[in-house]
Structure formats: structure tokens, C-alpha cells
From TrEMBL:
Record family assignment: Belongs to the TDD superfamily. DTWD2 family.
Keywords noted in UniProt: S-adenosyl-L-methionine, Transferase, tRNA processing
Name recorded for this polypeptide: tRNA-uridine aminocarboxypropyltransferase
Catalysed reactions, semicolon-separated: a uridine in tRNA + S-adenosyl-L-methionine = a 3-[(3S)-3-amino-3-carboxypropyl]uridine in tRNA + S-methyl-5'-thioadenosine + H(+)
Length: 252
């Protein structure tokens, strides 16, 4: 498993940036030729709800992070990022209050998670704006963050259901239905706000980036799950993952 995980951590780095040093965009900090800022909305969006990103420190080092696309597409204060492995830490100003707020919901699968679209959108039945908590990291990181943060246990946990395949075509997703942070935040926010137009605007930087990368020779990756099912995935996979992804024999 360890080797396998490392490969997946390496992949985004390979695709992300050209090998030589270039000038960087002052906003997204990416080399100018692969900056996605032109895909951002002309005016920052101001939904009623807020997105609260709890980010694993290792996520900062990834080349193809998508959380900043959400940060820069929304009005200041509408997307807050707190970094750590546990939450809240003493320097996470205001986070404890957010986590205790009855209008706070978290995207995290637990036995009690409810489908996000069963919640009242803002304004319906007197629903106040939400704080949407997202754990930003790999799945094992997110799991560790959750278990290390008892204050998260009592937040209403929600899940996104019936989602499209990731548009993040230049990064191999570990399983079908695994979305980038931007996509997760965007779909969830659109549902909570009852505003599907938010999606079109918020996903544009990602589409912009993917289109650019594909035009410039990046390879479209199918998800790992898809490739294993198609028997085209060349690398040996771990036993646990193989078990998880095992395709049952077809009944004729
Ligand atoms: Zn930029």
C-alpha cells in the first residue's frame, strides 16, 4: 500500500507544472503559463453560506491544489481555510464557534450522514446560511483529521449523492466519484444555496486549467478504479484496495 500511495502522490506533481522555472502568478502562485486565474468570475461571488476548509498541511505542497480556486472565486470571508492535523488549534481564530454553530454541516461519511440534498436550502423553512465544513487532504489524511478532532464528531455529517464524474481530468482520482476539493465545495454549496448557477461560475477555473493542460499534452487519466476494472492498470495494487474494488462475476 505504501508504494502505491506514493505513486499517486507523485502523479499530480508530474502533470502540474513545466519542468523549468518560470514567472509565477501573484495570485494563484502557479507559473504564468498554467495560471487558472483567467477562469475566475469577473466579480467574486457572495453566496449566503460560507465554506470552511480544514486543510491538512501536506495539501499545501501539492501542485494541483484546487481549494484556492474556491477561495479566489468567493468574496473574502466566504471561504475560510484553517490548516492543521487537528481542529481547532489555539491559533484557529473563530473556528471553535463555527464548529459549534447549529447551522454548520460537514461533508464527511459517517454512519449517520444524510444526503446533502435532503437539507433545506438557505431561506427555505427559515433555514439560515450554512457553514459548510470540508476536510481537504487525501482520504487517509481526512480520516485522521476527523478522528483527531473530537469537536467534529457532533457536527451534522452529510454526503453528496448522485454526482458526475470528476472534471479534474488531468489528475488520476483514486475512485469513481472522488472529486477535487473545488468540485466537492461547489456542488455542495450549490445544493445548500439552492442555486445551480453557482456551479457554472465556480467550476470554470478548473475547466480552464484542464483544457489548457490537455491542449498542451497532458494525458487524460481515468480513475484508478476504472482502470482496474478494465484490467489496464499496470501496477500491482494493495490487497485491501483490490478487495474493495473487486468486480463480482457476472451472472449470465
Ligand atoms: Zn493565477
Amino acid at each position: 500500500m505504501a508504494n502505491d500511495d506514493m505513486v499517486w502522490e507523485e502523479l499530480p506533481k508530474i502533470d502540474a507544472d513545466p519542468p523549468r522555472m518560470r514567472d509565477k502568478c501573484i495570485q494563484c502562485r502557479r507559473p504564468i503559463p498554467v495560471c487558472w486565474c483567467l477562469g475566475l468570475p469577473n466579480t467574486r461571488l457572495s453566496p449566503n453560506s460560507r465554506v470552511i476548509i480544514l486543510q491538512h498541511p501536506a495539501e499545501v505542497k501539492r501542485c494541483l491544489r484546487t481549494a484556492p480556486m474556491l477561495t479566489y472565486a468567493l468574496e473574502p470571508g466566504k471561504c475560510l481555510t484553517f490548516r492543521g492535523k487537528k481542529f481547532p488549534l489555539p491559533h484557529h481564530e473563530g473556528l471553535a464557534d463555527i464548529l459549534k454553530d447549529p447551522n454548520t454541516v460537514m461533508l464527511y461519511p459517517t454512519n449517520d450522514s444524510v444526503a446533502l440534498d435532503t437539507l433545506d436550502p438557505v431561506g427555505i423553512n427559515g433555514q439560515k446560511p450554512y457553514n459548510l465544513v470540508i476536510l481537504d487532504g487525501t482520504w487517509p489524511q481526512a480520516k485522521a483529521m476527523f478522528h483527531g478532532s473530537p469537536m467534529l464528531y457532533s457536527i451534522r455529517s452529510c454526503k453528496l449523492v448522485g454526482l458526475p464524474t470528476s472534471e479534474y481530468v488531468i489528475r488520476t482520482q483514486p475512485t469513481e466519484g472522488c472529486l477535487s476539493t473545488l468540485e466537492t465545495g461547489t456542488f455542495a454549496l450549490s445544493i445548500l444555496e439552492g442555486n445551480s448557477q453557482l456551479k457554472d461560475e465556480l467550476l470554470r477555473p478548473l475547466q480552464y486549467l484542464c483544457r489548457f493542460q490537455l491542449q498542451n499534452g497532458a494525458v487524460t487519466h481515468q480513475s484508478k478504479e476504472w482502470r482496474i476494472k478494465q484490467n489496464t492498470y499496470p501496477k500491482l495494487i494493495g490487497k485491501r484496495l483490490a478487495k474493495q474494488l473487486r468486480v463480482l462475476p457476472e451472472v449470465s
